[in-house]
Every structure is written in C-alpha cells, then in structure tokens.
Amino acid sequence: MFTGIVEELGEITAVETLDDACRFRLRGPVVTEGARHGDSIAVNGVCLTVVDHEGDEFTADVMAETLNRSSLGVLTTGSRVNLERPTAVGARLGGHIVQGHVDGTGEILERKPSEHWELVKISLPADLARYVVEKGSITVDGISLTVVDAGPDFFTVSLIPTTLALTTLGLKQPGDPVNLEVDVIAKYVERLLGGHVAPGDAR
C-alpha cells in the first residue's frame, strides 16, 4: 500500500522493449536505499516490482496490460517519474490509501498559475466520474491530491509550490497523459451496495 506522498522525482535511464512487455531502468537514490529483489515501488502511481538494483538504479518489468492501461507506455529514456516506496506498518498516512493499481488515464487540459499555487484541469474517463467528488481524494501520477471541482468528464486540483517543484505535475503540459487511481473506498462501497444505488446517485 502507498499513500500518494511522492518521495523523489526519479528518471528513466534505459528502456528495453520486449515482445509483450518492456523493462525500465530507473534512477532513484532515495527509493533504492535498502531495496531488494521483489520489493514494490510505485512509478507514476503504478506499483512495479524491483527485478534488480545496483547503486541508485533499479530495473522493473512492465507487462503489456500495464502499458496499455497506464501512461507508462509513453515513457522514454530521460523521462522524469514520481517514485514512492510502500508505506511501513505504523507509519503516518500522509495522503490517502493508494494501491498502485491505475484505474485509467486522463489528460492535462489546462493550467492556471497564480502567485502561490496553480489550478490544473484534468480530463476524466466517464466510467470513473462517479468515484470523484469535490473535496475527495484522487491519485494523479501517484500523487495524492484533493479534488477542487468535479465535472462529468473533468476535475480540477490545486497544486502548491512543493508539489510543482518535486513531482512530474510541475513538468506536465496540456495534452500530456497522467495516470489516475480513484479512492478505493468508494469502489468497495459501490460493490457492497450492489445494484441498490444508481450510477447517478453514487456521486
């Protein structure tokens, strides 16, 4: 489990294309400290497994399903990525419960900077809209954020200077894709209620 509090801005140092997958080599001095084969590290919000690591770099295999359902498929050598290790038992839950299982992708639609923060508008797939509510939590590229406004096909978030400086959202521009993971609690509630709540009432 992750919390959506990015530990460092890493970098893709190599991409090896395989028949139905690819292998990334990533640089991240913080997340590789004490890393072992089989450990999990979230890369732009996608939970990946450490295959090998040496120094401040590690490798991770990404299967076709993940490449198709997330924005990892557009990454190339030199791409910057958000990195986070799983939260430790007993640690503070700084963001919210994040599984590292991407539900879909959105696109940066608009950025409105101001003196101390920036409002970012992001497209929202129709099948995820019912899980996104004003002042609720959403994970964007592995970052736990609070929804400012939620529409039928978009939502907005406000980014503080720290988020802009230390994550990929400081670099992304309109047209760039982002990974989205909605609040898993909302999905569990919907499942438990079964067919008793209409999609329009679940927002």
Automatic annotation (TrEMBL):
SUPFAM superfamilies: Riboflavin synthase domain-like. It is an enzyme of class 2 (transferase). Homotrimer. InterPro entries: ATP_synth_asu-like_sf, Lumazine-bd, Lumazine-bd_dom, Riboflavin_synthase-like_b-brl. NCBIfam families: PRK09289.1, PRK13020.1, ribE. GO terms for biological process: riboflavin biosynthetic process. Residues 1-96, 97-193 form the Lumazine-binding domain. Catalyzes the dismutation of two molecules of 6,7-dimethyl-8-ribityllumazine, resulting in the formation of riboflavin and 5-amino-6-(D-ribitylamino)uracil. This is Riboflavin synthase. It comes from the Bacteria. PROSITE patterns: LUMAZINE_BIND (PS51177). Transmembrane segments: none annotated. GO terms for molecular function: riboflavin synthase activity. Lumazine-binding repeats lie at residues 1-96, 97-193. Keywords: Repeat, Riboflavin biosynthesis, Transferase. PANTHER family: RIBOFLAVIN SYNTHASE (PTHR21098:SF12), RIBOFLAVIN SYNTHASE ALPHA CHAIN (PTHR21098). It comes from Streptomyces parvulus.
